DNA sequence: GATGAATGAGCGTTCATTCAT
DNA sequence: CATGAATGAACGCTCATTCAT
């Protein structure tokens, strides 16, 4: 009941509404694509008026871009945590792949949104910035690839080839799993990741 | 001058117009996405009236689905031709991968359309019908995978995993190449395909 | 029933619909201002669908600009006809003023639209092109003013001052008349025009 | 600390805020038109909350109407001051015209707002209340016109005609001057006012 | 059969107004 | 009393689809 708690409540309420909108957008876009997520529906699902959305986001494009940015941040930080630098390149690769796969499988909405995003006009300008693609901000995977190449543990291929040999199969499997076309159990997952390693190791 | 010949002429005329419509749709969607391909523009580019399109396709969705089906047919038949059954599993794998890669790179419009299609509401219902996914109509790759597994040349993994380890990296590399982000020369292509083989071979 | 009449009918039909839209816009804007003329209302009053308007005009702005252009053309050509060049400057001035006044009074919708147009963002860029303002396309009044100045019949004032002394009072009187605030009979009209002449004559 | 002084303080505070709102509205509307003056922007510019505006004005329309009324009051009182009743009708006419012109030129925001106001739905219901139009509250100009008519110095025309011959040219010239289309120097101003006099004098 | 003018539902967005705090 | 977040009706505009010719 004091000023501090009031501020907290205000802050939370404002954030809560913004998050409702973000969440509703994620749900609708993940499930029905961009066409299936008109502002009116997002507003309804978020329990707000349509105009309210424009208090938090300048436009639908901005809303989607921010949603993407939040998800990207989450996934990047997830990948970076818990990796033990003292382990071998292979162990770290397996660890990170497993983590990525687990994240994608346990966050199917996030995954399906990212898929939609990358293959839409919204994401075209961000294509280069995909998980592995950024030149000026190497992520964990990319650093690992480079270390592996220089240690002569990995094939001497461009990093983007190693990335394609890693992420694409994982994403493809998760997609089919998420759509219910296949069922990824722990055994298949482990073997699939091992196979990825076989593909890139020297 | 009889009914039959009349039908033939009509049929040919209809087919020619139909193909114009299909081609115009392919061009526009590949280049500008679904948003950049309204029916009126497709009609104009195809040199037909907008209403005419509805004589050949029940709806825009059907038009797009048929376009997809035609492209799929073409790519499947391309992959199947010229493969020498007497060669080793590895040789046939390399041969077919190279063919697929060459096809995708030399048919960027087809490739870009397929990409758009898979990541849109249009493609969701057809996801199961992807190149390798059909249960009731095994294609060349799938047969090769099964042969390789039974000969103990390939890892004992579900076919869809072998498919993911093969097609996804190829598609990913072609995408980046088509978008101009990378440049796939013959050396990188050969090494990439070899790496795919390393991933699936026992 | 021949081809020619068919073409005529088509042409007329297309023109008729366009004219319906123009007329509905004129009526609504003249009576209720730009705010009182949303596209939906214009469409309803014109007896067409809202989308139809965009077959004839790229945007609402373009529709309004074309409406203005048509009215301007009509009024300019009205002013130019029947003026006898051999008469005195005064006679021609009186004649043209009377014609302008009569036109405005007998076309109150046109008049009210022009009033709205000039005092709106639409008309700002056309301000210089008002009846008397164009430098590169002198109209009848402007030519008359210049002749009168050089003949030393009119005061040696900038043309825009003579224009202001002529058009503004006329427009003002017509406005009040059109709004029903005053009633301009023939006698008042004649005397008012004479007074304008007294204002500009040397 | 009594109720009265409280009311006074409140009253002053309210008036100050009210004036801020009025001023912000004037600035925005004069500069950007009615479309460029949403309530939120007026509130921001006035340094008050959007809801606060509705404590002082029932609606945006009322706000604008009151703004108009204040400007009208100011201009009317400006015109009335300093006029020496003992001078001739002509001298007083020239004096008041010059004052009006000077006021309009030195108060371009007021002028531009009034212009916007008269040619908008807001102003239609107030048309009769224009500077010279009120029957029940004769202003200085109107009294001067009537005096001039009865003294047979001015033409025997309805007062509204004399008004049109006076105000309209002045307003028109000021508008073009304010818009930068022309430049009114002292000489042109003097001659223009003389011309107005020539128009109305007997 | 072929046409393309016409349609109107649906889109993203704005903004005068309200009301809980 | 003052606030500004929230609202939702209304806007200009698009485009898949229909249908009279």
Succession of helices and strands of chain A: HHHHHHHHHH
Most extensive interface between two protein chains, with residue counts: A-B, 39 and 38 residues
Summarize model confidence as the mean pLDDT of chain A: 87
- Looking at the structure, what is the overall shape of chain A? elongated
Radius of gyration of chain A: 20 Å
Ends of chain A: how far apart? 64 Å
Regions with little confidence, pLDDT below 50 for 5+ residues of chain A? 1-13
Helix content of chain A: over 70%
What does this structure look like?
Four copies of one chain form a homotetramer. With 202 residues, chain A is an all-alpha fold. Chain A has a domain at 84-200: Tetracycline Repressor, domain 2 (Orthogonal Bundle). Chain A is 72% helix and 0% strand. Chain A is built from ten helices and no strands. Chain A has helices at residues 3-32, 39-46, 50-56, 60-80, 89-106, 108-118, 121-124, 140-150, 159-178, 186-200. In chain A, helix 5 runs antiparallel to helix 8 (140-150). Chain A starts with a helix and ends with a helix. Mean pLDDT of chain A is 87; it is low at 1-13. Chain C binds chain D through residues 32-33, 35-36, 115-116, 118-121, 127-128, 133, 155, 157-158, 160-161, 164-165, 167-169, 171-173, 176, 179, 181-182, 188, 191-192, 195-196, 198-201, and chain D through 33, 35, 115-116, 118-121, 124, 127-128, 133, 155, 157-158, 160-161, 164-165, 167-169, 171-173, 176, 179, 181-182, 188, 191-192, 195-196, 198-201.
């Amino acid at each position: 009941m004091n000023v501090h708690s009031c501020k907290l409540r205000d802050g939370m309420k404002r954030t809560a509404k913004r998050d409702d909108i973000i969440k509703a957008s994620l749900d609708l876009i993940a499930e029905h694509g961009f066409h299936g997520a008109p502002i009116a529906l997002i507003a309804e699902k978020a329990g707000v008026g349509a105009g309210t959305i424009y208090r938090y986001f300048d436009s639908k494009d901005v809303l989607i871009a921010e949603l993407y940015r939040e998800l990207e941040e989450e996934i990047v930080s997830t990948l970076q945590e818990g990796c033990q630098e003292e382990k071998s390149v292979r162990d770290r690769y397996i660890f990170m792949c497993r983590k990525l796969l687990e994240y994608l499988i346990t966050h199917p909405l996030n995954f399906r949104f990212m898929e939609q995003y990358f293959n839409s006009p919204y994401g075209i300008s961000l294509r280069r910035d995909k998980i592995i693609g950024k030149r000026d901000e190497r992520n964990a995977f990319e650093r690992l690839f480079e270390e592996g190449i220089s240690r002569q543990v990995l094939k001497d291929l461009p990093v983007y080839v190693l990335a394609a040999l890693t992420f694409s199969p994982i994403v493809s499997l998760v997609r089919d799993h998420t759509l219910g076309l296949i069922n990824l159990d722990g055994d298949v997952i482990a073997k699939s990741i091992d196979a990825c390693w076989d593909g890139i190791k020297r």
